[in-house]
Design a protein that fits this description.
One of its GO terms (cellular component) is cytoplasm. Keywords: Cobalt, Cytoplasm, Magnesium, Metal-binding, NAD, NADP, Oxidoreductase, Pyridoxine biosynthesis, Zinc. This protein is an alpha/beta fold and 321 residues long. Helix content is 36%, strand content 17%.
Length: 321
């Protein structure tokens, strides 16, 4: 790899700095990345190479954590987010995206942010990371995928109340989710003929209308209308039989109807190694599948596995044909 992954620092009062340091120690030159943040926020004792150019990370990573210094307004106190640092968090993300857009980085990996601190300190106008990245990438619609070696899942609706799902789940939304997922599996994962399995909304996929009619009224008809050109699409399947070992061999990604339908199986199968991938962006973006963990920040006990897997997946995706 001739270009490093750009890792934005995320919320400095969370576990981001310490898991970045541990990820570097685990990966070193096997997966070169450059951390964008304030070196003051990193754990004591970690060897740091402050760089002027991200290309220098390739040579530096064997012996030190490559850092593009990004000064923040305040030091970090573990577990206590400071709104004064909100602008630094935002501009670190912008800098990582700019490096990917200009070809200086192979991908973007983002450490967790804390939305309240960003709102309090910088009037952050986006619901979360994903929407901000979509705006930076100039796209209106992106898809969240959770991926591990055992399973890839895509929730069609995400952070909304369960009572809102039947109203927000529309034919257009489901169609767009399927189309973006197919293209993402081709472009980012190198799967020439993706296989998608679509879960039903209701128990037993409605059981012929006895437990809900969405599958009969519009989900199954929609799936029948989508031209399967270079991919296969099956469903709607009962969600309770979609994630066992034999079923998972029959698809490359499962399209789910709501948040927990997607996230419960992947977190049950591979809690520490799940990676958040944003499909539909003009650059590669991965992230660990966890939050800032203020309750354990600074204690040296945070598990870096999800970040390590996010960096490794970004590297694999960047190398996809």
């Amino acid at each position: 790899m001739s270009r490093p992954i750009a890792l934005s620092c995320g919320e400095p009062a969370g576990i981001g700095p310490e898991i970045a340091a541990r990820a570097w120690d685990a990966l070193r030159a096997d997966c070169p990345f450059v951390w964008i943040g304030d070196p003051r926020h990193l754990p004591d004792g970690i060897p740091v190479a402050e760089l002027d150019d991200p290309a220098q990370a390739i040579a530096a990573c064997a012996t030190a954590l490559p850092v593009l210094p990004h000064p923040f307004a305040a030091p970090n106190t573990p577990g206590q987010p400071d709104p004064a640092n909100a602008r630094g968090v935002i501009t670190a993300i912008e800098r990582a995206v700019a490096l990917a857009q200009t070809g200086q980085a192979s991908a973007v990996c983002t450490a967790p942010i804390h939305k309240k601190a960003l709102i309090d300190g910088a009037n952050f106008a986006y619901p979360g990371h994903t929407e901000f990245l979509a705006a930076l990438g100039g796209v209106e619609r992106v898809v969240m995928m959770l991926a591990s070696e055992n399973l890839r899942v895509v929730p069609t609706t995400i952070h909304i109340a369960l009572s809102e799902v039947p109203h927000r789940l529309t034919p257009d939304l489901l169609r767009e989710t399927i189309e973006i997922t197919v293209q993402g599996l081709r472009d980012r994962f190198g799967i020439a003929r993706p296989r998608l399995a679509v879960a039903g909304l209701n128990p037993h996929a409605g059981e012929g209308g006895a437990m809900g009619r969405e599958e009969i009224d519009w989900i199954a008809p929609l799936l029948g209308q989508i031209p399967q050109e270079g991919f296969t699409l099956t469903g709607p399947h009962p969600a309770d039989t979609l994630f066992h070992a034999a079923a998972r061999t029959r698809y490359d990604a499962a399209i789910c109807m709501y948040h927990d339908q997607a996230l419960i199986p992947i977190k049950t199968l591979d809690f520490d190694r799940g990676v958040n991938v944003t499909l539909g962006l003009p650059f590669i973006r991965t992230s660990p599948d966890h939050g800032t963990a203020f309750d354990i920040a600074g204690q040296g006990i945070a598990n870096p596995t999800s970040l390590i897997e996010a960096l490794k997946l970004a590297q694999t995706m960047a190398a996809a044909p």
